[in-house]
Structures are given as C-alpha cells and as structure tokens.
C-alpha cells in the first residue's frame, strides 16, 4: 500500500503539500494586515471587533426583518396550512442567513486573524494595557483580577490564573498555526504535532465565528482541560468584548449553566455537552432549556471523541420497579465452578499434547492443542508453547483442517469442552456438555426454554375453564421470561470470567469496578459496560452489584456532534482515521507542517520470541538511558504490565514513578517530574495524549526524552501519541518499540510469515530481530485491526442512525410543544393523521358502525357523513370531510373551555393578583386528570386563550414523554433479539430497520390518538374558583442518573462480524437452547394460532416468523 501511495504521489502530488499551498495566499493576506494593525492604538484595535459585527449584521438585516414579519403573521393567522408554510419559509430564511454570514466571515478572515495575532503580541510585549473602559470592562473588573479600573480607563494585566496555575502570556501565533486556524474555520480537522500549540490555534477560528453571535463551543476530553483552557485563553477574547465561560464549572439545569451557553465562547467536556442536550429534551418549561441551536464546534483531541468515544451512548436513566432483583449472585458459583473445571481439564490436555507432538504424533497432538486453544487461549503455558519452533504452524494447520466445509469437523474438537472461546472475536459460547454440567442432574431443564407454541397447544387441549387456562398460560409466559433472563445472566457471567481480566480491561477501586480506557489508560469514571455485563463483573469481583435502570433519554456522541451546522477539530493523530472522518462526518484532515523540523530518532521495532526476553531487554535499555542522564518514558498497554515493570526496576534498585489508572490522582505531579535528567516514568497510555513533558537544556544536550514502548497497540494512533511525547518543537529525542510474538497483536493478527521466518532463521531465546520489513508487517497487523474496528463503528452507526431519525422526530415535536409556537400545526397534523387512519381502515373493511364508534371514541363527535355517503365517497374524500368537521369541533370546544374558565380567572386576577403569579387549573377527560400551570396575567389578558395553549402543551408533553420511554425500552429489547437472526442466515440490521420502523409507526399512531382523545374529551370540572390555586415553583425531583455505557470493543466486533454475515469461515455457534423437536425449515408449512382470538392459520414458516416474534401468534404442533 505504501508503494502504491508513493506512485500516486508522483502523478497526483502530495495532498498535505497541496492543502498547505492552497492556504498560503490567505496567510500572506493575514501578514499584510498585521503590519497595518501595528500602527493602531489599543482602543482602535478593540474597535475592529464592533466593525466586523456591524458588517455581519448589515448583510443579514433584510432577512432578519423578513423573519420578524413572518413570525408575526404566523401568530395572527388562523389558517393552519398557511401557518405551516410560513414556518417552512422561516427555516429556509435562517439557512440563507447562515450562508450569507459564512461568506462575510470568509471575507473578513485575514483581518480578523490578524487582530487576534496582534492582541497576542501586545499581551507579550506589555505587562499591562490601558484602554478606555466600556461596560463589559466594568462588569469584568468585579470578577477578574487581571482587569482593573482607573477613572474612565481599564487596565489589562498580561498575567492571570489558569485553573490554579499562574501564567504570564508568552505566545504569538506562528505561520503554521495560521494554517491550522484557517482549516478549522473551513470545517476541517487540523492535525498538529505535540507542542505545536493547538490551544492557541483554536483562538483564531473561535474569535472569527463568535462574531456571528450564535455561540462557539470548544469541546475537550476532560474537565481539567476545559477549565484550564477557558481560563488560559479567556483574556484574548474578553479584551475584545467577547464573553467566555466553561459549562463544567456550573451545575446542570442551573441559571449559571444557561448563562455559560449564552456566552460568545463556551468551553466544556464532550459528555456535558451531550448530557445537556438530553436534559433539554426532558425539560417541562422553556425556561429550563440551557442550550442554543448548535452552531459551530471545535473538538479538541477529535480522534478520541469522534472515533474512540463516538459509539458510546450517553444515557440518562431512572430507577425501574424491582431493579435490584437479578440472578448474578445465585448463578456465580455455577460459573465459577465450570471455569475452574475446564481450566483443570485443559491443563492436563496441554501436557498430553506436548508429549504427543514431541513423540511425532502431530495429528492427535494437533487436535489436543487446538482443543486447549479453543478452551483457554490466554493460558500462559499455552502461549509459551506456541512460541516454540513449528508449534504455531501446527496449530494453524490443524485449525484450517477442522474449519473446512463450514466448520463441519469442529464439533469433534469442542465435544469435550464445557465452553468455547473465540479469542479473535472475544466471544464465549456454552457447549451441550457445559449446559448439562451447569444445569445439574436435579434440574436438567434449568436452562431450557419451553416451546411456547407446543405448550400453549397442550394447555388448550385440556379443555379447562377460561380462568384456569389463562392462569396456566400466564405461568408459562412467566417461566419463559424467567429462563430467558437466566440464560442472558449466565452468558454475561461467563464473558466476565473467561474474557475480562482485572487490571487490564478494568480495575477495582473503592469497592467499585472501574473501566480503563484502552486508548488512554485512564479510568472512565461513571461509565459502565452495557447489557448487564458490568453487573456480571461486579459479581465476579465480589463488590456491590448496582441496580438495573431504565433509559429515559440517550444519544451517541457521533450523532450529537453531527447536529452542528459546522464542525471542526484538532489533534496530533487524525491521518490514520482520515477515511472514517470523511465517510461519517464529512470532515477532511489537513496535515499542518511543524514550526521546526522534527529531530526525534524513531528506531525500527525490536522483535523477541517471548515476553520474558522482551521485558529483560527493556529494563537493560532503560538502565543505560537513565545512567546517560536522559529521562525515560516507558509506555505500557495495561495496569498489570506497568506494575510488573515497576517491580523489575525496584529489584535493580532504580528509582521510578508509575502512572496508571490506579495512580491517576498523581498524574500532574508525575508528568511534571518526567522531564528531569535520569528520571524513569512507567505509564499506561495515559501519558500519550494531552501530556506535555518539558525538558531542560541539560537534558536536551544528553539526547532528550527517550520513549520506550513495551508493546504495539491495536491502533497506530496510540503508538504515534506515545512517540509524540518526545521531539516537541524541534527537541532531540528517540523512540523504540519492543515487540514479542506472545503479544496480543502479534498472536492474533500478526503475519504467519514472521513466525515462519523466525523458525527458519533458528532464532534462539534471547536473540532479537530488527528490520524495516518486520516493522511494516506489524503495521499491517495494526491496519487489519483498524479496518475491522472501522467496519464495526460504521455498522453501529447504521443501527444508531435508525434510532437517531426517530429521536429527531420525537424531540422536534417535543420542542414545538414546549415552545408552543408551532404546536397548533402539529396538532392539526395529528388530527389529520388520525382521521386518515380511521377513514382508510373502515372504508377498506366497509364498516360504517366501527367508523362511527371510532369518531366518538377519539373526537367525541358523531359522523358528519351518512352511511350512504360513506359507501359512495373515496377514503380520501371521507378523510377531508372528517378532518374539517373535527378541526372545527376542536376549535369550538377550546373556545368554550376558555369561556368557562375566564370568569374564574378574571375573579382571581382582580381580587388576588398580588398573591398569585402562576396558577394551577385542573382538566379531566373523565378518566385521567391533568393539572395545567398557566401565567395568571397572560391568561387574563388573552381571555383564557393562554390557558388553552398551556393545556395543549402540557398534555402533548406528558403523552410524548411517556410513550418515548416505553419505546426506548422496546428498542433496547429489539436490538438484543435481532442478533439471533444471524443463525438463520439473515441480516439483523435489515430486520432491525424493518421492526423498528413498525414499532415507531405504532408509537406515533398511539401518541396521536392519545393526545387527540384527551384534548377532545378534556373538560374543566364544574366547580368553584377554589379549584384554581397557586402553582408552586418546586417540581418533584426525579432520581435520575447520567452514565456512559461502554460497549466492549472486541465483543461488539464479534457480534457485528457475525451480524454482517462475515465471509470468513466462522466457527459453528453452539446454541445454549436445547431443541426437543426437529428444526423447522424456512419453507416448511406450519400452523399458527392467535393467542387471544384462537384463530388458526397455515402458512410458510418464513411468513409466520414475524407474527410469532410479536407474541400475538404461537406455533401449533401438528
């Protein structure tokens, strides 16, 4: 591939160079303005900002005027169709205003960037800057120490506190930083090396885009960076009258957080931006909303947020009834037992395999070796044996033999195993022997699901009375549900024991299971594995098992950030994921050149046979480097390895620091010491992102920082981040990676050629290979993993897009209801959709009686057409007549309700308005009642119309929220259940899309009917004015939790590979459900029975499947 790239560069040219060349004219223009701005006074420089804002305002003044006029027309017109057209016109005008604003920003870019650079220069060259004080300076002087007032002057200091660290401004933008700033304004990703000042670069596009007054968001990966950067860069913006805030300083839903979002520039963490979006879509009053429309965001460490974290769902959840009930504790001893039994059995099998292979019986020895590999692939003795000459080739040859003909022979390998582990896909499946063992002799049906159809038929054949039959059926369904949950719990426990290792994927701290981020090595606080896996790990580690919760609102980061009109980012490592950024986010990557050439010496990888040799070589190398006076940063991929190396250094009496997930609170102190001469720092990937290790002149003279990588990570980006710690701003340094054939990457994805070549060379223990071919082969293995992970993320995005499309519809309706201005249009559409459904269904069945009944049921009105007209008119004509009659009936009813309520409101207003501001008015539909809160003064001034608007708003919000929560639960269940479709050679994604559409259509239909029914039946109780009382401001506090669900990478990858119908030969999956009847073919004819109506149907099984899946029909044994 690299050869192909080099050939393409000859003919097409280097993209990075072309990108930079295209922006060079703009950089020249900025420099031209720089010299002109130097002549301006401080006040004249500040006046430039108002000049830019005036240009933007002038360019869109006519459009804003049109929007104002149309909004007024929409509020006054009674014609619903006209109102809908007006709102569409307003949306188009807003899009047009955005495009015009972008054109103006592009035109003023060179001068605006020059203003920011000139400001930075003046803060460097002056300890204080005196300007004429304006209102913004005066308000700021009361909050910030770096602004002081003296008569009518404001004095700005060039020293201030940045999140607890005193700083004196000493930075001026380089030319290469101007290139990075331009690319971010254009909605691209600027890839900039470590030490190139990404935080400073961001000030350029942030200032420019903040001029539009729509808000600019700077998104960071953690709250420390958000707080530090907002305080560090704030004076540059504030000097020009721009407000700056950080959302992470303020409580959710607070006035302070709303104020932060209303600032010109807002800093914050990706999680908090996403959670605020979800909270806004659970709000019950427009005053509770904190976010503005999503305008422009710059994402710092964009690869971490939009690639590594992209598929992570942000979830707001609440308690569910009996959420503390589960079987993890009860089933744990069974799983514990089966894991130890298999380990003990296979340890003996491995010893037999070694003996047979040594004696030359490769056939039987190979079979036993493969059995051990499929049962305990991470066993250290097995891994060591596989590194011996010829053993790995024997295993691969045996595996290929048993996998041929679609895994036909594989059951012979697995028949003695209790469960099978697919290590590449990180999946675990119980075998028949395992199910038998775990069920026990006393209860062989412990894990066997009953065949619902057969059991229902048996109950019905008993000719019992209706009540007794219903009780037996209920018990049957309860048993089915209980066993389904039990199988799921067992599956998750088995994963926890067989696939997840303490101090690698997670750590246990303060009696809690905390996930370790595989990309950064940091603890991901508040994040839990999804689908009960986290509870299973809690059971395994004997810590408190948290209660189950119900999802109330959820969004993934990739869909949240795609809502911005313009998105850009910055990072040191985006190039390896450039294809993904473009395909998913339409973000181009621009490789920004470094200010000074990189002087770091990146050496070829050193490859050893075993981990033991590798670690000994690492310690020897580190000892030499440290003695030479160079600081050493040792990069590891897990907590376990960092602690092992720490012990090895202690044995040699070498002083060192260990930075891993367990020591994360000492991060700042350890990083501050990491650049000292001779200092040894062992770190997980924590030291690879956002860590700036500064070196003294003495250290630079000794050769700079030495990076020692103890393993290649799955992702090239993580390795590049670690390398990037050395060689910042032209500093000297070196990087060396140590690899062994026992490393996970090499074991699972490494080329067979490496193993063969090492065997042919007769490489003895302790010897090492170092060659560019080996390094390239390792890189190819990493690319394999990256491509695999991209496929997983892309497929997950397709699942998430289904959910996102539904979320947008529901949240748009909710927003319209909350603000009220477009609610009447939505209600008219609900009435039309309901009338259309009633008309088409009953016209098709030619059922006038049911037609009349449904009109009374939903609209509380008789039919406006006769039975003869019903027979003659088309469904479309009936819909039109019913809609007009229903809408007129609704308007009359709401006017009547307003007339009934107004005398009471008038009395309260005239006699007690000094006591009440907001009042509660009860409404009822005869079954349910709803208390409507309304503003007393507005209700009086509009003669009760405000009360009716609030009634419509309240009922719409209540019904949408309730239906959406139920729908989310159904969607979660659907996503789990469709994965089984792969066993029937079907694509789960297609089934998911079809079924989710049907579920959503049913939910919207139900919401429409429920809202319409309550609105048409809603009445004011015929009581005195005592019914109306003051509305209390306090709303019942809901016990809600925010969390990020972590989807285990390899586990998810496996599910998606299977779901995509991976063309590679996968092993046969052993089902955990034992069949007691022969398998039914898809084209076999079967009889199904309706559970409620008792009606029978005979049809092909593939047609019956979706009906059975819905639970309304069951299979009947013939």
Element layout with pairings:
Blueprint: H1 2-12, H2 15-37, H3 42-59, H4 61-76, H5 80-125, E1 128-132, H6 135-141, E2 147-150, E3 153-157, E4 159-162, E5 165-168, H7 175-185, E6 189-191, H8 198-201, H9 203-210, E7 216-220, H10 223-238, E8 244-246, H11 255-261, E9 265-269, H12 270-280, E10 296-300, H13 302-308, E11 313-319, H14 328-358, H15 362-375, H16 380-386, H17 391-407, H18 410-414, E12 419-422, E13 427-430, H19 432-439, H20 452-461, H21 466-499, E14 506-509, E15 512-515, E16 527-529, H22 533-540, E17 549-556, H23 557-561, E18 566-571, H24 578-585, E19 589-591, E20 599-602, E21 606-608, H25 611-627, E22 632-635, H26 639-651, E23 657-659, H27 667-673, E24 680-683, H28 697-702, E25 705-709, H29 716-723, E26 732-740, H30 744-749, H31 752-760, H32 772-819, H33 823-845, H34 848-859, H35 867-872, H36 875-912, E27 918-924, E28 929-935, H37 936-941, H38 945-978, H39 988-1017, E29 1029-1030, E30 1041-1046, H40 1049-1059, E31 1085-1090, E32 1096-1100, H41 1101-1110, E33 1113-1116
Helix pairs in contact: 2-5, 2-7, 3-5, 4-5, 5-9, 7-9, 14-15, 14-21, 14-22, 15-17, 20-21, 21-22, 32-38, 32-39, 32-40, 33-34, 33-36, 33-39, 38-39
Summarize this structure briefly.
This protein has 41 helices and 33 strands. The protein is α/β, with parallel strands linked by helices and 1118 residues long.
Describe this structure as you would to a colleague:
There is one protein chain. The protein has 1118 residues and is of the alpha/beta class. The chain is 55% helix and 14% strand. The protein has 41 helices and 33 strands. The strands form nine sheets. It has a seven-stranded parallel sheet, with helices on both faces. Strands 20, 21, 22, 23, 24, 25 and 26 form a seven-stranded parallel sheet that branches. Strands 16-30-11-17 form a four-stranded mixed sheet, sandwiched between helices. A hairpin with a 4-residue loop joins strand 12 and strand 13 (427-430). Helix 3 (42-59) runs antiparallel to helix 5 and helix 32 crosses helix 40 (1049-1059). The protein starts with a helix and ends with a strand. The relative contact order is 0.08. Mean pLDDT is 82; it is low at 1047-1078.
């Amino acid at each position: 591939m690299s050869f192909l790239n080099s050939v393409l560069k000859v003919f097409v040219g280097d993209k990075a160079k072309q990108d930079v060349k295209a922006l060079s004219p703009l950089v020249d223009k900025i420099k031209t303005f720089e010299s002109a701005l130097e002549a301006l006074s401080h006040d004249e420089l500040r006046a430039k900002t108002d000049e830019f804002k005036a240009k933007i305002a002038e360019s869109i003044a006519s459009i804003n005027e049109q929007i104002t006029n149309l909004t007024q027309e929409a509020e006054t017109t009674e014609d619903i169709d006209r109102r809908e057209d007006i709102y569409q016109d307003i949306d188009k005008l807003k899009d047009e205003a955005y495009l015009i604003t972008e054109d103006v920003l592009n035109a003023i870019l060179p001068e605006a960037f020059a203003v920011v650079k000139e400001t930075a220069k003046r803060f460097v060259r002056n300890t204080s800057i005196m300007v004429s004080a304006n209102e913004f300076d005066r308000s700021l002087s009361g909050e910030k120490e770096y602004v002081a007032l003296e008569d009518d002057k404001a004095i700005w200091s060039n020293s201030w506190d940045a999140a607890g660290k005193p700083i004196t401004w000493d930075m001026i933008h380089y030319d290469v930083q101007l290139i990075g700033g331009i690319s971010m304004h254009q909605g691209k990703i600027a890839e900039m090396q470590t030490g190139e000042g990404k935080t400073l670069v961001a000030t350029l596009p942030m200032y420019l885009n903040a001029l539009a007054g729509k808000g600019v968001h700077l998104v960071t990966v953690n709250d420390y960076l958000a707080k530090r950067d907002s305080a560090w860069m704030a004076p540059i913006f504030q000097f020009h009258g721009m407000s700056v805030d950080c959302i992470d300083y303020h409580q959710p839903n607070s006035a302070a957080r709303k104020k932060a979002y209303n600032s010109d520039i807002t800093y914050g963490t990706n999680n908090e931006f996403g959670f605020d979006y979800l909270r806004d879509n659970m709000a019950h009053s427009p005053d509770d909303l904190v976010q503005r429309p999503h305008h422009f965001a710059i994402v710092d460490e964009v690869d971490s947020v939009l690639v590594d974290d992209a598929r992570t769902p942000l979830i707001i959840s609440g308690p569910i009834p009996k959420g503390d009930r589960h079987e993890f504790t009860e089933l744990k001893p069974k799983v514990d037992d089966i894991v130890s039994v298999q380990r003990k059995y296979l340890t003996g099998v491995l010893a037999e395999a070694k003996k047979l292979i040594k004696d030359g019986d490769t056939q039987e020895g190979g079979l036993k070796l493969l059995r051990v590999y499929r049962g305990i692939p991470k066993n250290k003795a097995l891994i060591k044996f596989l590194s011996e000459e010829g053993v790995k080739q024997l295993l691969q040859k045996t595996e290929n033999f048993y996998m041929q003909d679609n895994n036909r022979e594989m059951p012979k390998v697995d028949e003695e195993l209790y469960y099978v582990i697919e290590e590449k896909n990180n999946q675990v499946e119980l075998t028949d022997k395992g199910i038998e063992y775990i069920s026990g002799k006393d209860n062989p049906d412990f894990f066997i699901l009953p065949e619902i159809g057969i059991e229902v038929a048996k109950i019905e054949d008993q000719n019992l009375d209706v009540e007794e039959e219903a009780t037996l059926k209920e018990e049957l369904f309860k048993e089915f549900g209980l066993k389904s949950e039990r199988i799921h719990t067992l599956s998750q426990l088995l994963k926890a024991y067989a696939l997840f290792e303490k101090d690698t994927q997670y750590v246990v701290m303060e009696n809690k299971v905390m996930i370790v981020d595989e990309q950064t090595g940091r603890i991901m606080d508040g994040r839990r594995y999804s689908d009960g896996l986290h509870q299973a790990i809690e059971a395994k580690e004997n810590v408190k098992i948290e209660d189950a919760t119900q999802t109330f609102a959820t969004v993934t980061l990739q869909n949240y950030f795609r809502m911005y009109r313009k998105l850009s980012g910055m990072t040191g490592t985006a190039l390896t994921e450039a294809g993904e950024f473009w395909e998913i986010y339409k973000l181009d990557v621009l490789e920004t050149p470094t200010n000074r050439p990189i002087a770091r010496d990146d050496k070829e990888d050193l490859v050893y046979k075993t981990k033991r040799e590798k670690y000994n070589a690492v310690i020897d190398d580190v000892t030499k480097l440290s003695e030479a006076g160079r600081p050493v940063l040792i990069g590891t991929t897990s907590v376990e390895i960092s602690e092992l190396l720490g012990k090895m250094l202690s044995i040699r009496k070498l002083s060192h620091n260990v930075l891993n997930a367990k020591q994360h609170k000492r991060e700042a102190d350890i990083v501050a010491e990491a650049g000292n001469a001779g200092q040894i720092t062992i770190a997980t990937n924590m030291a690879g992102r956002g860590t700036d290790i500064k070196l003294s002149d003495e250290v630079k003279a000794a050769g700079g920082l030495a990076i020692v990588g103890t393993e290649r990570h799955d992702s090239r980006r993580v390795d590049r981040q670690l390398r990037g710690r050395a060689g910042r701003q032209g500093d000297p340094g070196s990087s060396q990676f140590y690899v062994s054939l026992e490393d996970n990457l090499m074991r699972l994805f490494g080329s067979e050629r490496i193993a063969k070549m090492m065997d042919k060379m007769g490489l003895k223990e302790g010897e090492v290979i170092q060659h560019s071919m080996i390094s390239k082969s390792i890189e190819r293995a990493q690319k394999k993993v990256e491509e695999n992970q991209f496929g997983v993320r892309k497929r997950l995005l397709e699942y998430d897009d289904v959910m996102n499309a539904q979320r947008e519809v529901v949240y748009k309706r909710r927003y319209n209801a909350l603000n009220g201005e477009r609610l009447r249009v939505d209600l008219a559409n609900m009435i039309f959709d309901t009338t259309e459904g009633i008309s088409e269904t009953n016209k098709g069945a030619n059922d006038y009686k049911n037609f009349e009944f449904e009109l009374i049921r939903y609209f509380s009105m008789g039919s406006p057409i006769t039975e003869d007209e019903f027979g003659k008119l088309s469904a479309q004509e009936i819909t039109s007549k019913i809609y007009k009659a229903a809408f007129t009936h609704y308007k009359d009813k709401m006017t009547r309700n307003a007339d009934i309520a107004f005398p009471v409101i008038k009395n309260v207003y005239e006699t007690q308005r000094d006591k009440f501001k907001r009042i509660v008015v009860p409404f009822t539909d005869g079954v349910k009642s709803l208390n409507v809160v309304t503003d007393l003064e507005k209700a009086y001034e509009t003669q009760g119309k405000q009360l009716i608007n609030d009634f419509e708003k309240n009922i719409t919000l209540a019904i949408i929220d309730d239906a959406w929560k139920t729908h989310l639960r159904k969607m979660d269940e659907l996503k789990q259940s469709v994965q089984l479709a792969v066993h029937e050679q079907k694509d789960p994604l297609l089934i998911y899309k079809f079924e989710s559409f049907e579920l959503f259509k049913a939910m919207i239909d139900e919401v429409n009917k429920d809202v319409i029914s309550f609105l048409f039946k809603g009445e004011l109780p015929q009581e005195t004015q005592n019914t109306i009382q003051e509305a209390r401001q306090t709303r019942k506090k809901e016990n809600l939790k925010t969390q990020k669900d972590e989807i285990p990478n390899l586990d998810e990858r496996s599910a998606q590979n299977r779901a995509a119908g991976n063309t590679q030969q996968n092993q046969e999956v052993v089902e955990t459900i034992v069949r007691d009847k022969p398998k039914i073919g898809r084209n076999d004819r079967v009889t199904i029975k309706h559970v409620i109506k008792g009606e029978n149907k005979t049809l092909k099984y593939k047609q019956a499947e979706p009906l059975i899946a819905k639970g309304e029909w069951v299979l009947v044994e013939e």
